């Protein structure tokens, strides 16, 4: 499965990539902001999942605006949010088009979900 990971903080991006690699993922595409993420979606074929790790990204759009733009552009892949905020309302996130919410402090939940999705 090819996964697009979006994060503007290099160490957080590295942690997410390590988590995904530990879950057996080999095809990881990265973007450092929302604009790059959209560029990747239009230029890299076969992206099946987007994981955004920030609501407050630098360089233009925030995470919610990115999710809205992904959906508006006609992409159908799920979008998951990995966040350091423990109080994210999952129902509200779903209203914005985010399928699943994971906590940075519980990365094993992300690992398990990726392993399950890939099978």
From TrEMBL:
It comes from the Bacteria. GO terms for biological process: phosphorelay signal transduction system. SMART domains: REC (SM00448). InterPro entries: CheY-like_superfamily, Sig_transdc_resp-reg_receiver. Keywords: Phosphoprotein. The modification 4-aspartylphosphate is found at residue 54. The keyword Transmembrane helix does not apply. Residues 2-115 form the Response regulatory domain. This is Response regulatory domain-containing protein. It comes from Candidatus Giovannonibacteria bacterium RIFCSPLOWO2_01_FULL_45_34.
């Amino acid at each position: 499965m090819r996964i697009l990971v979006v994060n503007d903080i290099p160490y957080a991006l590295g942690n997410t990539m390590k988590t995904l690699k530990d879950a057996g993922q080999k095809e990881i595409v990265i973007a450092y902001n929302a604009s790059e993420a959209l560029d990747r979606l239009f230029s890299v074929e076969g992206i099946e999942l987007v994981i955004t790790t920030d609501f407050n990204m630098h360089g233009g759009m925030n995470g919610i605006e990115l999710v809205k733009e992904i959906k508006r552009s006609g992409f159908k892949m799920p979008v998951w949010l990995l966040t350091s905020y423990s109080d994210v309302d999952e129902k509200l996130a779903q209203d914005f088009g985010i399928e699943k919410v994971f906590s940075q402090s519980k990365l094993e939940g992300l690992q398990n979900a990726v392993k399950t999705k890939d099978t």
